[in-house]
Input
Amino acid sequence: FSEAGRRPLDRFARLAMCQGDATVHGATVELKVSGKSYDATTLAPEDAWIEKLDHVTFKAEVARIGKELADQQGPADVAHLNKIICWSRLSTLIGLATMWYSINPISIFLLSLGTMTRWTIVAHHVCHGGFDKCSNGVYNRFKFGVGSLARRCTDWLDWMLVEAWNVEHNQLHHYCLGEIADPDLVENNLASLREDKAGAFFKYAKVVFFMVTWKFFYYAPNTFKVLSLHELRRNGKEATFPADAHPKYAGKPVPERWLDRPWTIAALVGNSANVFFRRSVFFSRVLGPFFVVRFLLLPGIAGLLFGQAAYTRSLVSLILAELLTNAHAFLVVATNHCGDDLYRFEGHATPRSPTFFMRQVVSSVNFATGDGKGGQGHLADVVDFLQGWLNYQIEHHLWPDLSMLSYQKAQPLVRDICKRHGVPYVQESVWVRFVKTVSIIGGRSSMRRFPAQYNSAKDVVS
Output
């Protein structure tokens, strides 16, 4: 037997791969095939790998590659980062330099691309510590974008507060992947939309709205809420309704269900207003800086230099670029861990345990990667750049603190390890993954439930 844990039924019972009852040794045993529920008692054919996996050996091979890649990082990785920073900044600068002349798709696309890549490539990997040990402190996670408004404006100015992103993404998402505590679990976050009885047209109209607004409508307030909860817990406090709330609620603990509930702009009105943070603080500290620079300062400069028409063209271009960068980011972010061929889990896996490494693979998906063979170079980088370097999610979740160059090297190695151990390694076009994600959001399909009976008791906390 492998490290997967105790076996709920013997081999005779597991031969019956269908729902219903089976007679085993003269007794009637109810069989529940894996896939739709955590309490499955027998494995569906596509889950047969679970029983065969040697978790300990799998972890050892994955950890060995991660260590080798980390030890190899150095000047080449920093030079590669600087090249990508140059591409990202150049996209933004060309967009800014041309947006005033006419409202055109090239300027809009470049503005959008510059915004997205500054987040998903530069900030993402630096904030994970991918360059802490090889950049002489220039790109350090404890300095990048944090501590002051000046650092935020210089390093990464976006709708989200960098400190909030670091807690929500680096801590909760990466160490609770696929669990109910994962703040980026799309199927859970959009449960109300999945269950919505409205017609398909209205359902998918909401999906489109969410795609083009999600960074400021959902991600900024939700990451700030996570940061606020983190600070409360660190100080030994619980979340309560503010003193100026309705007398019925003032000073009382917030409902338990609110703690894991997605927090959007819409939650900042009514009884939930000012619960986790003051609205005034959120709009001034979180959204305010990016809004002022992006939609007041930049078009204002264009207007001063080139006149009223240039101001109008610049503002319209920036607004359209904002909608596009939201949609582009949704395409490559929301699809990373969503689909009916990926798993959700019951119970929390101990970080860096054998189960933890397995979960990172089977709850993540890769898109087309570089040249597909682990090669590096400008052409491979273009493929990865356009996908925000989020096309290496499997490798990134195994070792979050590596460089982009290391992920290119790691991809074929991890794929081979998974093939050797029979672990599902999902890699498909980002457009295929988008269709599967929309299917999950619309309630037409669901993610697979990893059967709790096969959790390792040593690795998983209930």
Remarks:
- The radius of gyration is 24 Å.
- Residues 74-333 form one domain.
